[in-house]
Design goal:
Layout: E1 5-15, E2 23-34, E3 46-57, E4 63-70, H1 82-101
Antiparallel strand pairs: 1-2, 2-3, 3-4
Length: 112
């Protein structure tokens, strides 16, 4: 994220009533400022996204996975046709790119 955004701020968040011991659901409003121009966006352009974030917890209270629904739009899967398939493929490619660029060894994480 720091390579794309000059600034990213959590403007607000609320714990949703549907939360329980197996998952925490949040209403999150995040404002980001683009660091440099990207297609159709100028440097300094701001983007605010209101998301529903769900953290799925295991029996020890640790996060097993998270779902983020931008603008509260459910995540599309193959059952939504070609658009869902494209979104799933994009997520897999993005995950692989992040995995290659972010250290997974805690000893290599800055600030430790």
């Amino acid at each position: 994220m720091p390579k794309i955004f000059a600034e990213s701020l959590t403007e607000s968040w609320d714990l949703l009533a549907e939360s329980d011991a197996s998952h925490l659901a949040l209403n999150l409003t995040q404002k980001s400022v683009f660091k440099s121009p990207i297609p159709f966006k100028e440097k300094g352009t701001e983007k605010t996204v209101n998301s529903k974030v769900t953290l799925h917890l295991n029996g020890q209270g640790k996060v097993e996975r998270h779902d983020e629904e931008w603008d509260w739009q459910g995540n599309k899967s193959e059952e939504y046709g070609w658009k869902g398939k494209m979104m799933q493929a994009r997520k897999k490619v993005n995950a692989k790119l992040v995995e290659k660029s972010v250290p997974t060894d805690p000893a290599k994480v800055q600030g430790r």
